[in-house]
Each structure stands twice: as C-alpha cells, then as structure tokens.
Design brief:
single chain; alpha/beta; Rossmann fold; seven-stranded mixed sheet; 34% helix
Length: 264
C-alpha cells in the first residue's frame, strides 16, 4: 500500500465515535493556548533547535512556524533568527505568538488559517518549522509540499515516535470502554517522505520540556475531561484515575530536516 494512503487511513482510525461526540459538552479539538505558551520552560538547546540553527544565517534570519501555537518552535531560534512568522487556525494562539515574539525582540507576523490553504499568502522564510502538527494532517502530501515550497534553506519537522493521543488509550478504555489505535508513527512519516522523493535527514531526541501550564493539576484534569468528551460531573473520578495512571507519553521524538525549494 502507498505510504501516503496508509498514513491517511491510520489517522482516520482516530475519529471519535459519533455517539461520544454527541455527548461532549466541549469540543475535544479545541486546545488551551497556555498549553503551548512560551515561558521559562523553553529549552533553546534541544536537538531540534540545534538542527534548525545550524542552517540559519548567523544574523537577520527568518523562521516560519506552521501550526505555531504560542511559538515555542520559532522562539527557540531567536537569536539568530530575527523575524518570525506564525501560522495557526486559532487566533488566541496567534496572540500568544505575537506576545512571545515581542518579549524576545523579534519582528513578527501572524497568519490565521489552515495549512496549506494559507500557504499562498504566507511569506517564504529561511527555515520552516513544524512541530507536533503532522499527526493532525490526513492529507499529508500537499501539506509537506507546501512546507517545502515556503522554505529557502530547510524544513525542520518534529513528531513523537508514535501518535501523541495514544498516551491516553488507557483513559479511553477506562471511561468509554473503547480501544484506540496507536499509529501512525514517525517511521510512517519517514515512509511518506521517501514516497514523495524527499531526502530527509533524521535524528531522535528526548521529549522536550512542556509549558508550565501542563503541570497544573486543575488544568490537567480539565483538559482530560475535554479530550475525553466528559462533563465536569466526572471531575473527581478523572482526577482520581490520573493520580495513579500517568498517560503513557512517547519519551522520544523524531526530528526531520530536508532542503527547501523556495527561491533564495
């Protein structure tokens, strides 16, 4: 089977059953911007940042952060980058991105919308960063092609070695008695790149630090309720379960880098 087709089919398996969605008091697909905020937890020395910095100009460089959230990928590259562009479908995430850029003294621009729909309206950059987004994209070929088309020097893309939502499979089993999938994996993404004829370098690194907000217990429980389509009446039950069942996070992330083809 085609790697691109297989990628889409594996992501389709993550669709939340309709009978569960219909009972959700909040959309499970909306995220708290604080989860992706730039704060003191940002580690600019992680491997993905080093991989991107190694191809950036020593001064005056630019970064396009696709699916930017609060801008943790882009801000880890300032300096040497001096200009950052954030693309996200959530305006609250873009507000956080703008604030983070101002705090580090970078010139910034934001574009609201879905990638690659807004690619035509997005400026090129020396480096295009795309962290923890690919597992949300079933139609992966045009997504990757648009990343490549806006990068003058390189694309740096980061994903956990397996789908991040697989960390919650035990919780889904406990509260809804359903089995969730595990794929796709970063090996599946590598196969997609190979099928597209993209010669990418690849590294593995430990899971980077998360924003401080993610360690707040109340926020953690609230986020779990939202993710599992549960109401606040299950708060105590969820908190008790999480206290003894830490989500099984992938502790290793894959870093891919390949050349861009935007004109210099």
């Amino acid at each position: 089977m085609s790697a691109i087709v297989s990628w889409a089919e594996k992501l389709a398996d993550w669709t939340i059953p309709q009978h569960i969605l219909e009972r959700a008091p909040r959309s499970p697909y909306v995220h708290d911007p604080a989860t992706f905020a730039v704060d003191e937890t940002l580690d600019r020395s992680v491997l993905s940042a080093e991989v991107a910095r190694s191809v950036l100009p020593k001064s005056g460089g630019s970064v396009l952060d696709v699916g930017c959230g609060g801008g943790r990928a882009a801000m880890s590259l300032v300096p040497p980058a001096e200009r950052v562009v954030g693309v996200d479908q959530d305006p609250l995430m873009l507000e956080s991105f703008t604030q983070a850029a101002a705090a580090v003294g970078a010139l910034s621009k934001t574009i609201e919308g879905n990638w690659p729909d807004v690619a035509v309206d997005t400026p090129t950059a020396d480096v295009v960063a795309c962290h923890h987004v690919a597992y949300n994209v079933a139609d992966i070929e045009p997504f990757v092609a648009a990343l490549t088309g806006r990068a003058r020097l390189a694309v740096v893309l980061v994903v956990p070695i397996r789908h991040p939502m697989s960390a919650w499979n035990d919780v889904w089993r406990r509260f809804w008695n359903i089995e969730r999938p595990n794929g796709p994996t970063s090996d599946d993404f590598a196969a997609v790149l190979d099928e597209m004829g993209i010669a990418a370098e690849r590294w593995e690194m430990p899971r980077p630090p998360l924003a401080r907000h993610t360690s707040d217990e109340a926020s953690r429980v609230s986020g779990t309720l939202r993710r599992l389509c549960l109401g606040e009446d299950r708060t105590d039950e969820v908190a008790e379960f999480l206290a003894s069942h830490e989500p099984d996070w992938a502790t290793v992330h894959s870093v891919f880098r390949w050349p861009g083809d935007a004109q210099l």
